[in-house]
Amino acid sequence: MVMASAGVNNMPQGDSEEGRLRRRARLHARRYAHQASSAPAPGPAEEGEVVQSPPPSEEGSDAVVAAAPQQLPSSKEKEKRWPVSFGSVALAGRLREMEDTVSLHPSFCAWADGSPMHLFAVFDGHGGPHAAALCREQMHVILAEEMAGAAAAFNNRQQSEEQPAEASASSEQVAWRGALSRSFARADALAVSACACGRGSTLSVPKSCSCLQSAAQKGAIVGSTAVVALLVRDRLIVANCGDSRAVLSRGGVAVPLSHDHKPDRPDEMARIKAAGGKVMYMNGARVRGILAMSRALGHRLLKPEVICEPEISITERCEDDDCLILASDGLWDVISNKVACDVARQCLEDGSPTRAPAAAGSSEAAPSSGGAAPVVSQEEEPRCFRAAALLARLALGRESSDNISVVVVDLKARS
User: Fold this and answer.
1) Numbered ranges of CATH 3.60.40.10 in the chain
2) Strands 2-4 and 297-298
3) What class of enzyme is it (predicted)?
4) Which site from 27, 161, 245, 328 is most exposed, i.e. has the minimal number of CB atoms within 10 Å?
5) What is the assigned CATH class of domain 75-261+296-362+375-410?
């Protein structure tokens, strides 16, 4: 708002310009001195209120510019700062059987403060598609139940105890970690008797079927990796069990949010030996010479060496975040974190076609976005689909010998 000072009309005609400027400066000074002496002392500023002192007047200036008070962003404006859109591709590649699967569930539940939580995951099955199929169908259901319980307990603690903001944030993270650990344990308990046909994939005791019998005949060497990403407000939570991986592209730099659980990783090897197991080198390091990873869901025969406890990372999002990539080892075995992030980022920056191209071996192309993208898309976005498809094709071109599953989550608001 601009307030122009009144002109002084009774000045003698003979006054010089310099004299008029000096008088105006003295007039402004007297006005501010009078306002300062008569105004009450300011109290503490309320939330959202910006207290500003008047700007110093410049000699010869005829105007005083008063800045309007700033307001804190509304909840809707805060949500716009953290957009989410996604796309995925899952290919059998050079294998006859498809054991990978992906899970995409935006707004699958709400946290204690009402903020929506979004789930994206990749599951890489072993010994058949049974365990990965169960994870795809049930992990988000289990997580929604566990998060609801954790949110209720968190709210109860907040109401009974007054905590500073730092302690509250810490308690929130403890609640998230606990819910994820419990969810992985419940999924692990079901994974051994998982069934690809769906009749065994229930939260109750699975019923007998031919798929289940087939899994049992394989000596319980049936399981799956799990890399699960949860997005809530400005937090990115990743839980990993196995050698599927999550990588964040931040300002052109690849930031790993998970670390592969390999039997020859020093800390994992020590844990396996402490549990009475052995790491044998047969086409790479393997637990008992069988499994090429040290953590997974299922694999009853290899317990207690192979555990289901996930490693969890919690990352604060920032404006430099480009995208999040979740993928099975079919991608990471032949493509580095940096190359994957560079390719995905370039695809997202290049813009989106009317309809995303279908990846080789995929059933169909992603649907058209049909206009401006919402803050959180509920369907796969063509630009993200194209990035995932290109990464999968690149892995095939580099002769990946495994199934390839890729999820790309765009973390920027793009027109």
Assistant:
1) 75-261+296-362+375-410
2) unpaired
3) hydrolase
4) 161
5) alpha beta
